[in-house]
Design a protein that fits this description.
Elements: E1 5-8, H1 10-22, H2 25-42, E2 51-52, E3 58-63, E4 71-79, E5 84-93
Parallel strand pairs: 1-5
Antiparallel strand pairs: 2-3, 3-4, 4-5
Length: 95
């Protein structure tokens, strides 16, 4: 088991926080669950998760959202020399 520190790109984090601040309590709960899941899931063996994409060292992973019809995916880069995973894109569809 390899553990990594999960960091979010500043722009992704800023957009996420704006959505959280503008949301009602239900949306905030969903967004909090999404962020917690991403941080927890990508912290352990991220190189084994998701699918490779056409970006350097990047992978994409579907994020389960049980209380919404939205489909969410996270694109992340693995920086093995720093033991970091960087969230570079968060995509919401539907919902």
């Amino acid at each position: 088991m390899t553990r990594y520190t999960v960091v979010w790109d500043e722009q992704v984090e800023s957009q996420f926080l704006r959505a959280w601040l503008r949301g009602d309590s239900h949306l905030r709960s969903i967004l909090t669950d999404i962020a917690n899941w991403i941080d927890r899931e990508l912290a352990v063996d991220p190189e084994q998760k998701g699918l490779a994409v056409d970006e350097p060292d990047a992978r994409v992973l579907a994020v389960p959202v049980s209380t919404s019809k939205a489909r969410v995916s996270v694109t992340f880069q693995i920086l093995p020399e720093d033991r970091q995973v960087r969230v570079v894109r968060l995509l919401f569809r539907g919902g």
